[in-house]
Amino acid sequence: MLAPGNRAPDFTAANQNDERISLAELLKSGPLILYFYSADFTPGCTREACALRDLHAQLAAAGIGVAGVSPQTPDSHAAFAAKHALPFTLLCDPDKSLARAYDVVGPLGFGIRRASFLISQAGVIEDAVLADLRIARHEAFFRKAAATRAR
Fold first, then answer.
1. DSSP code string of 29-57
2. Which of 16, 21, 63, 149 is the right S-S partner for 78, CB 3.0 to 4.6 Å?
3. Active site amino acids
4. Cα separation of 97 and 48, whole Å?
5. What is the pLDDT of residues 12-46, one digit of tens each?
6. Spatial separation of the C-alpha atoms in residues 36 and 66, rounded to whole Å
7. Of 116, 46, 40, which is closest to residue 78 (Cα–Cα)?
């Protein structure tokens, strides 16, 4: 997993609307929480996405954007976002190239590890957490990011 202080690897990926979006575009309006999750509609990933949804107003007030990354298709992401009223971008990583760039591919190349990165507007990783099964650690990470940057 990439550590704080590292430059965030650039990328362009399809989102839930099948539109291509780059890291630079996501950072235009401020820092970004980029979080990796294994799959749409799984219990843990749904809980994490809903925690971000519930904190979205606080994150937005602090000027922080959010984007999730997993291997599913734009159609799967669109259905997941619609079912849970997710107000943020979901990015498709079917070949796990983003997961490899951020060093969050699971053991032996299987799956995606649950990881969250706070990336500054300058493209530098400011903070990060890796907690595969401890979703509460990610929720605490999101709350800390919002509180630290509150305006």
1. TS-EEEEE-S-TT-HHHHHHHHHHHHHHH
2. 16
3. 45
4. 22
5. 999 999 999 999 999 999 999 999 999 999 999 99
6. 11
7. 40
